[in-house]
Amino acid sequence: MSDQLIRFIRDYYATNEFIPLHAPVFPGREKEYVADTIESTVVSSVGKYVDRFEHNMAAYTGSQRAVATVNGTTALHISLKLAGVERGDLVITQPLTFVATCNAIAYCNAEPVFVDVDRNTLGLSATALETWLEENASLDADGVCRTRADNKVIRACVPMHTFGHPADLDGLGAVANRWNIALVEDAAESLGSLYKGRHTGTFGALGTLSFNGNKIMTTGGGGMILASEELAARAKHLTTTAKKPHDFEYIHDEVGYNYRMPNLNAALGCAQLEQLEAFIDKKRALAAAYEEYLSGTALEFIKEPENCRSNYWLNAVICEDKADRDELLETTNKQGVMTRPIWALMNHLSMYKNCRKGELSYAEFLEERVVNLPSSVLPK
Ligand SMILES: *Cc1c(COP(=O)(O)O)cnc(C)c1O
């Protein structure tokens, strides 16, 4: 089984060399734009490529505005602050995610609460969210969502669009509205993915992207906040040391952060964004090839949810059980075809093990069975 899959992957990538899980490609104007920043000496905090990257990303996603940051984690941190998350608050998220989602909550001195994912989207489940809130929360006289047991404020919820597959945004939006909690989308993995024709990351009050080296497009390291004009203006201020505009004086009016993306990285981003739709086409072609190859085998290929266009950032399969998963991981990695298991659940990590949680049966099922397959864009 694994041997045949390895053959299939080697044929697709037409190589007998090591095949990574996800490697970036730079077939466009990357060198030209980066060289331009070096020649101009404007490589650091401000510059025309930062403005252009923000403008082009807002236009591409249909967001009112976009604010570039040094990475996706910092974009999440600031987004949570702007959603009103304060010390001691609770933020509901999924246990099946990359650790950055939870770390950003911890940076706000808030606590994550884990509720289950949907089996088909791998994203936060609207039903599980509603159930947890019904069992644990109520709206106070001011309309603030609080836990009944200890009166903690539940300020926000953070769905994550796992491997590029959009979560149930209609369902989540309705629950968040009903309970008066802010929706902040962790769209780090889903740039270019559409839910009912609209870009992920633009449904919540704020949405965040990542341009780390392993994402669908990269700036080396980088992130972005998608938001309304008003929240984005606040995000820009907070991520650029909270400096008041002035011709020469240094006036900072609150504790700000140095989270801005350097111009050098934005130059790379501008070139990559020009090719994003072509990358997505290639990703989707690869996903279709995996899907066809795997149909009728013991491996269940994870498909995009209905009414969605996934960017298929990372292809993934569900193995029958943990023993099969281990066999697949061992055989492929030993033979130079890189595969990886899905993350350990956040509630299994030492720093988050005592956090509140709902019933997590799908997350636990997936934790034992999901494997990511090589997903790089073919360079040719
Ligand atoms: C990549 C990623 C992030 C952000 O990562 P950075 O490396 O800080 O850019 C956040 N959440 C998820 C789910 C991710 O996959």
UniProtKB/TrEMBL annotation:
This is GDP-perosamine synthase. One of its GO terms (biological process) is polysaccharide biosynthetic process. Its EC number is 2.6.1.102. It comes from Marinobacter nauticus. Its cofactor is pyridoxal 5'-phosphate. Keywords: Aminotransferase, Pyridoxal phosphate, Transferase. It catalyses: GDP-alpha-D-perosamine + 2-oxoglutarate = GDP-4-dehydro-alpha-D-rhamnose + L-glutamate. Belongs to the DegT/DnrJ/EryC1 family. It is an enzyme of class 2 (transferase). PANTHER family: BLR5990 PROTEIN, TRANSAMINASE. The active site is at K215 (proton acceptor). The modification N6-(pyridoxal phosphate)lysine is found at K215. GO terms for molecular function: GDP-4-dehydro-6-deoxy-D-mannose-4-aminotransferase activity; pyridoxal phosphate binding. Signal peptide: none annotated. Pathway: Bacterial outer membrane biogenesis; LPS O-antigen biosynthesis. Pfam families: DegT_DnrJ_EryC1.
